[in-house]
Write a structure and sequence with these properties.
- 0% of the residues lie in helices and 51% in strands.
- It has no helices and eleven strands.
């Protein structure tokens, strides 16, 4: 089993920044990716960003390109999401997830992820 624990959410004004963290524990895998998704009230869960653990290739949703940065610390088994220039429409519960597939196209699809964290609330006020 894999456990994912997010932290770092909170309330911030528009234009501000937050950094989310997600610590992975449990089973280890040789090839996998970590992703961030978000879900606002009444909306479907949507892809935000992903990073291939080996090699560090990154993938972003168009809505966050240039504002959000995903990174990982291999020694700490932690993935980060640095969020800058936040907008009220970024308000959502943010989830990290682990994807055991190697096909990069699967990184954009919530249903292709195998493990999920409990989520952390991000609220951006206008």
């Amino acid at each position: 089993q894999v456990q994912l624990v997010e932290s770092g959410g909170g309330l911030v004004q528009a234009g501000g920044s937050l950094r989310l963290s997600c610590v992975r524990s449990g089973r280890t895998f040789s090839n996998y990716a970590m992703g961030w998704f978000r879900q606002a009230p009444g909306k479907e869960r949507e892809f935000v960003a992903a990073i291939r653990w080996s090699g560090g290739s990154t993938y972003y949703a168009d809505s966050v390109k240039g504002r959000f940065t995903i990174s990982r610390d291999i020694a700490k088994n932690t993935v980060y999401l640095q969020m800058d220039s936040l907008k009220p429409e970024d308000t959502a519960v943010y989830y990290c997830a682990a994807n055991l597939r190697t096909n990069w196209r699967s990184y954009y699809v919530a249903g292709e992820y195998d493990y999920w964290g409990q989520g952390t609330q991000v609220t951006v006020s206008s």
